[in-house]
Design brief:
By secondary structure, the chain is α/β, with parallel strands linked by helices. It is built from eight helices and eleven strands. Helix content is about 30%, strand content about 15%. Helix 1 runs parallel beside helix 8. It is globular. GO terms for molecular function: kinase activity.
């Protein structure tokens, strides 16, 4: 998928997608939000950062936001290598976090159901974060991955750390506040996070050390740029 030759000195970034395809008890489909994958990929590809794609269950995850009027979506969607990578994602249970320079959790409403409940996700995220050398990042509903992650001392990973995520206001605006299993912003606050919301649908990227989060699809590129900068800085120190 890389548009430039990947830098062999840089460990790959792992992008994690939801495998959940329905919005609660409704018949409405969901999944990962395509632009929250393609726009970060464009950043990583341009920087020569190798990328691997995983999902909770592996195989081909469900897709939401299939907007091909978005030029970046269209470019990747028409790329056979990208489509093959999406069809054959690695199950998260088979991932060794020490192999990666960053772990990036893509949003989409599906993430609200399977990200928080995955023991593999919690283990991998804890190990990656505690390594001190792997960036942990998430955008939009992707921070649902963080709500149940505890560190080895028993504290929540997000406790006393600055984070952003899809806001309760934005959830109400899309009329899914009564459908999702919990409100993401409120839950992060309950976990002790220093939650940093911005006005609805505005770009909002928050970095706290090697934890990077973004509020909504508008923030996906900015989160990836922050991850890129941290990854390249870490590689330069090796």
């Amino acid at each position: 998928m890389n548009q430039q030759t990947a830098n062999p000195r840089i460990r790959p970034a792992l992008i994690v997608l939801t495998s959940h395809g329905t919005k609660g008890d409704t018949n409405e489909s969901t999944g990962f939000y395509l632009s929250e994958l393609t726009h970060p990929l464009a950043v990583f590809d341009a920087a020569g950062i190798p990328v691997a794609i995983s999902s909770i269950q592996g195989g081909e995850p469900p897709i939401d936001g299939l907007d091909l009027s978005d030029a970046t979506n269209e470019r990747y969607w028409n790329d056979d290598r990208f489509r093959a990578a999406i069809r054959n994602t690695r199950p998260l249970a088979n991932v060794d976090p020490s192999r990666y320079s960053a772990i990036f959790f893509v949003g989409g409403h599906g993430a609200m159901w399977d990200f928080p409940m995955s023991a593999d996700l919690q283990r991998i995220t804890r190990d990656a974060f505690e390594s001190g050398t792997t960036v942990v990042a998430a955008v939009c509903h992707g921070p649902a991955a963080l709500v149940n992650v505890t560190l080895t001392d028993g504290t929540y990973l997000v406790a006393n750390r600055k984070v952003s995520a899809f806001t309760d206001e934005e959830e109400r605006a899309v009329q899914l506040d009564e459908v999702v299993p919990f409100l993401l912003g409120s839950t992060l606050v309950a976990r002790g996070a220093l939650y940093q919301p911005a006005p609805a649908w505005t770009r909002n990227i928050v970095a706290d050390g090697h934890l990077v989060t973004g509020q909504n699809p508008q923030s996906a590129t900015g989160v990836a740029q922050a991850v890129r900068d941290l990854v390249l800085a870490n590689a330069a120190r090796v």
